[in-house]
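User: Hey, quick favor. My workstation is busy. Could you predict this chain's structure for me?
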Amino acid sequence: MTQLSDTLDAAIDRLVDDNTSRTDIMGRMATAAGISESTVGQILGGDIFCPPLRRLRGFARVLPITMETIQGPAEADGCEYDEKGFGVFCAVKGFDVQVEKFDKLLHSILAATKN
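Assistant: No problem, here it is.
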């Protein structure tokens, strides 16, 4: 898990009640961010690093929390954002598990482009 996923999970948990399920909230988050519910799940699971700021803004509207509440943990996880709001994972800031996952992903991409 990441600090971002922990922050998002806590915000989701605050909204869950007898009439609103976690799945309902994740669906709203997906719609607001312009992504699929499975992608929201990957972000919550820490499998997707540094979601673009436009996606985090969508999450913030649904959850309702501030961008600072979301962006701070993402940056603490090692995300840096460029001028267009795209996230860049910075392995230099540490996060051994993320680095390992990133390394596997990079090798998969490189292998796929050789074929």
